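Field notebook, page 425. I keep forgetting to write these up properly, so this time I am using the form the group agreed on. The chain and the ligand, manganese (II) ion, are recorded exactly as supplied. Prediction of the bound pose follows.
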Amino acid sequence: MDNDFLTDFHHVATFGATKNNGVDRQAATAEDKLSRDWFSRFTREQGWQLRTDSIGNMFALNELVPGAPYILLGSHLDSQPLGGRFDGAYGVIAGLHAAKRIGHQLTETGVQPRYNIGVVNWFNEEGGRFAPSIMGSSVFAGLMERDRMLQVQDLEGTSVAQALDAIGYLGSDPGPEVAGYAEIHIEQGRILEREGIDLGAVDYSWYTQKLDVEVLGEQSHTGATAMADRHDALVAASKVILKVHDVVAGFEPESIVSSVGRMTLEPNSPIVVARRVHLVADLRAVDRETVVEARRVLLEQIAEIAKEHEIRILVNDFDVRDIQYYPEAGLELVEKVGADLGVSVRRIRTMAGHDSVAMNRIAPTVMMFIPSVDGVSHCEREFSTDRDMLTGLRALSEVGYRMVCGALTADVAESGTRDEESLVL
Ligand code: HGY
Ligand code: MN
Ligand code: MN
């Protein structure tokens, strides 16, 4: 079974493969279609039901208990541009193989499960082509409005709806009723590797937001316009980019991270002073207060830059994601499974966003990490070992099996509500 997983994992990594061992499989591209078609084939080969909903989320459903809700395992098959082959894809392929193992285990043991088992490939978790990120799972969880997301356009002006329709994955199926969700993912950081730990049990997610910055100067001739007459949007934007980088110096080391990752320039001619620059800044921190204070400092500095260059700079907040705490029962479940499997486990926060952050709002959710070599991600150098992937697959299979049999949800059902004070809703 391990080899089946590894064969599938390394096969899916060929879809959108780049020459430096990465993948470029952005949401609803032809490359994404290849991975979606593979997901569909795998589902049908198992005799499971395949559903695609109206924001392109795909569900592979194995109905064990007629009419019962599903324990969903999953993640996302889309990638960043020139991204890594592990981010997301590992969780979807491990989810499929874990669901297969769970089905076999139930048949062999004759245990009557409480719930059904399903696997999900969420649409556009990455947000590289269509912003915001974590889109498909957020629409599913009711956190983003589906029709608005279907109209979101990429830089070429193609909408989500048009792109999904073009690859044949603009569905209309209802999503499954969910009793619980479990996701396994690469850590995308250095902690597990540095401490030699096999598995991370994610206990909370950092506070994050994006800043949409529009720098509006005046177009003019780079050769004929006097310097005193220029209102150069690119010079002002460059100062904003540096301020976004430098703002973290005002806080505890590694308590906040920030970068501008996207910049578009108009008219982008070598002989024209730029009239407009559009930037997206990503701010994330251990707590809300730190992001709010960093944002306040940046808005002040941006106002000064606008005044100095006699131009307008418009700043809007978006993709704001509050800190979230994963249920204590789920953390204990991962720790118990780790002990039973003889793998080391530690609790760990996530700085990156994940589909589990959305799902944690609507169902008891478990999020696990395996080590990332050198802690890198969203780049072709992203790497995790086969050994660590197989350890994670074993853990996901066991966690999923216990959830299908009622763990986590049974505790939740008996306690009436989830550990509310630990969840920020
Ligand atoms: O937003 C995130 O952190 C994820 O990588 N899309
Ligand atoms: Mn991811
Ligand atoms: Mn990612």
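OBSERVATIONS:
- The pocket of manganese (II) ion (ligand 2) is lined by residues 76, 87-88, 125, 185, 354 (CB under 6 Å).
- The first strand starts at residue 49 and ends at 52.
FOLLOW-UP: compare against the apo run.
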